[in-house]
Each structure stands twice: as C-alpha cells, then as structure tokens.
Design brief:
Elements: E1 5-6, E2 23-24, H1 27-52, H2 56-73, E3 82-84, H3 89-98, H4 103-127, H5 130-133, H6 138-151, H7 153-162, H8 164-180, H9 184-187, H10 189-203, H11 209-217, H12 236-239, H13 242-261, H14 269-286, E4 291-293, H15 295-304, H16 309-323, H17 326-332, H18 337-362, H19 369-383, E5 388-390, E6 393-395, H20 397-424
Parallel strand pairs: 1-2
Antiparallel strand pairs: 3-4, 5-6
Protein name: Uracil-xanthine permease
InterPro entries: NCS2
Subcellular location: Membrane
Length: about 425
C-alpha cells in the first residue's frame, strides 16, 4: 500500500482544495513544497545551536532525523517539521552561567526533558486525550498559538528593518501570489517570494560579505560532530519547566493544523507527544538542540493549503543532506535576514490568526472574566517577553506565559465554576 495517494492529477492541486496529510502531488512539486519548509525552518534551526553552544550541523542532522521519527510514530497523520526550539536558549544559557553547566550537561538536560515529554504522551495514550483536554481546552491552545505567533513578531520586524527593499519585494511577492493566484504560484508563494528577494539582494550586492566568504571557504562534505550527554541534577531546575512548553507547543500545533485543514487530530495527540519527545531525547543524546514544531512551517501550510507529510519528509531529508554538506548549508545561509523577515511577517501573522480561529470555532466566551484576565495577561507577557527572575533562574515571557496558561487557567476555571454553583444553590 502506498504511503500517499496522489491528489487530483498530481500536476495541479484542485482549486481551493486542501492537500491532506495522506496525499501528495507529483514528486517534483512535492520537492518544491518541501523546500519551502526547509527555508522556513533553516534560519532559526541554525541560530539556536549557535546561541546555546551546540554544533550547527549536528542540530540540522538531528532535526531531520527527529522529523522522520515523528512522521513515523504519528503514522503520516500529522504534518510537521521539528526544528530547534527557541524556548531553550535562555534557560540553557542561565544553566551554563549560573550553574556552570558544560555543553554535555546541557545536552543531558535536553534529553531528560524529551524523556518526560514521552512519559506525558504515554499517559495521554493510556488514559485518553481528555486527560490533556482538561488542562488544555481550545481556549488555552488558542491562546498559546496566538502567543507563539505574536511573540515572534519582533524577530520578524527586526529582520525586515535590516534590508527593507529585499524584504518588501519578498513580502509583496508572497502576499500578491497568495491573494491573486489560485494555481500553483499561489501555493508556492513563500518559495517564490524568497527567491525573488534573494535574487535581488545578490544582484544589488546586498548579500552579507562574511556569509559569501563562508560559502567560498566551506567544504562540500563534512561529518557532523556528535557529543555525548551527561545528566546533572543542577541543570534540571532550569530545564524541567520547559516540559510544559514543549507539550503546549505540540498540542497547539495539532490544534492549529486541525483548524486549518478541517480534520480532527485529537486521537493523535499522544503519538505526537511521544514522537516529539523521542525526537528531543534523540537530539539531546547526540549533540543537538531540543526540537519542537515550528511556527513558520505551520504558516507555510496555512499559506499553501498543502498539509502533505510527503513535503515534510522532503524537508527532513534535505536537512540531513545539508548537515553533511557545509557548502550547501552556507549557500542557504546567504539568504539575507531582510528576505527572511519579509516571508516570516506573513507566516507568523497567519499563525497568530489561527489561534483566533481556534477560539472562534470553540465559541470562547470573552465576556467571562477568567478568559479575559488569564489569557490576556499571559498573551501580553509572552508577546512582550516579560522576563522574570526567580533566584538565579531567568524565565522568559514565552515560557512562563505558556506555563501560566496551562497551570493557572484550569485552577481559576474551577474556582469560578464553584463560586457560580454556590451562588445558584
């Protein structure tokens, strides 16, 4: 039995139709959609290991392998690309600075977080998805999706401002093709927009000189560096709160894709958590960053309406190939930040609005003070990156905003319901 059925005639998607996870277009077109996912994840997946002191090519290799593992464990039902998680940058930096953790000890922390996420996934599969829904109903997952999208806005705008003309060309191309074209150009708008902005920057001499030099000096072939982890108790207080963040991100990803594609993915939540946890544990065991679903890749699916796991598989295989070819990785790294900013301005905005769509579909009552106070506070804290200092531990707004929504909302919900019940009796 084939892994994917061919959508339509394979050469052109049915107008305004969704290409489902179990479908694919012709392989040349599928490769093109896979390249869009690759470009969407590449910048952050290479930046995070640089900020945390891990080898870039190792994280690239393990993100590709982790994505393939995720697709395997979810049986091709959940389209996703797992890239390096930005949420780990500050906690790992704090563990290194305050606890003196070595790279091996940090990797041990990443691996332990992955193992705990696996345990959560096993519990969800054993006890049912309602276990998770009680703590993360649509009102919570919608808020997390919205917060993820909006919290990335400063990064996108900052990149846009660095090279405004290439960024504007990229943005304009993506928006026009997405809105005007109902054919293949509209579905490949992100890839075409990046190529337009990249080409202009190359002709105008706006490619970063140091990146061009790195491209010239990079070898065509090289093995990624593998590092063995070490588990140290001193690292755990810094990283264990991130279990909730990873769980929230994976669940929010499923809810976002379900809302956009019109499919019920709740039965696959346990498998997705197990797959995501295994991917992170594998990455931490060999020298890579923690892995999570990527906002930009969700945005690509929203823009193209192509949810084929075949495209995600192509992106994963391409990442593995790039990890063994510093030259090809350096070539993609010459894409100007402004070009990436122009593309992500659209993608992150689409993701944020998916969070609002989850609320609308669930008919969330915003006259309810619990919804207003908890969600409003957490979203603003996450978007504004309100960093809290707890002893020697610095917790970013995205981290404590997610933890706050998941832990505080159910408690206040029960308190409010009990008060209403008492008043009615």
């Amino acid at each position: 039995m084939a892994l994917w059925t061919v959508h339509g005639n394979g050469r052109r998607p049915v107008p305004d139709a969704v290409v489902a996870s179990g479908e694919r277009l012709s392989w040349p077109l599928t490769v093109g959609f896979g390249l869009q996912h690759l470009l969407a994840m590449f910048g952050t997946t290479t930046l995070v290991p640089l900020l945390t002191g891990f080898p870039v090519t190792t994280t690239l290799l393990l993100s590709g392998l982790g994505t393939l593992l995720f697709l395997l464990l979810t049986r091709n039902r959940v389209p996703s690309y797992l890239g390096a998680s930005v949420a780990f940058v500050v906690p790992l930096g704090a563990a290194a600075d305050e606890a003196g953790a070595s790279p091996s000890a940090l990797l041990g922390g990443v691996m332990v977080v992955g193992l705990v996420v696996i345990a959560v996934g096993v519990a969800v599969k054993a006890l049912g998805v309602r276990l998770l829904e009680s703590a993360m109903p649509p009102v919570v997952t919608g808020a997390i999706v919205l917060m993820i999208g909006l919290s990335l806005a400063p990064q996108s705008v900052s990149s846009f401002d660095q090279q405004r003309l290439p960024a504007a060309l990229t943005l304009g191309t993506v928006v026009l093709l997405t809105v005007i074209s109902r054919g293949m150009a509209g579905r490949a708008a992100v890839l075409i927009g990046v190529l337009v902005g990249w080409s202009y920057a190359a002709v105008a001499g706006e490619l970063a000189e140091e990146r061009v030099q790195e491209l010239a000096a990079a070898p065509w072939f090289g093995f990624p560096q593998l590092i063995a982890p070490q588990v140290h108790i001193s690292v755990m207080p810094f990283v264990l709160p991130l279990v909730i963040v990873l769980v929230a991100e994976h669940v929010a990803h499923l809810k976002a894709v379900a809302a956009m594609s019109g499919r019920d993915l709740d039965p696959h939540v346990g498998d997705a958590l197990i797959g995501g946890g295994l991917a992170t544990a594998l990455s931490g065991s060999a020298g890579g960053s923690a892995l999570s679903s990527y906002a930009a890749n969700i945005g690509v699916m929203a823009a193209t309406r192509v949810y084929s796991t075949a495209a995600c598989m192509v992106a994963a295989l391409a990442a593995i190939v790039l990890s063994f070819s510093p030259k090809l990785g350096a070539l993609i790294n010459t894409i100007p930040l402004g070009v990436l900013g122009g593309a992500t301005l659209v993608l992150f905005g689409l993701l944020a609005l998916v969070g609002a769509r989850i609320w609308l579909d669930a008919r969330v009552d915003f006259a309810d003070p619990v919804n207003l106070v908890v969600l409003g506070t957490a979203v603003i804290a996450g978007v504004g990156d309100l960093t809290l200092q707890v002893g020697e531990l610095r917790v970013t707004g995205m981290v404590w905003g997610s933890v706050g929504i998941v832990l505080v909302y159910p408690l206040l919900r029960r308190l409010a319901d009990a008060r209403n019940a008492a008043q009615q009796s």
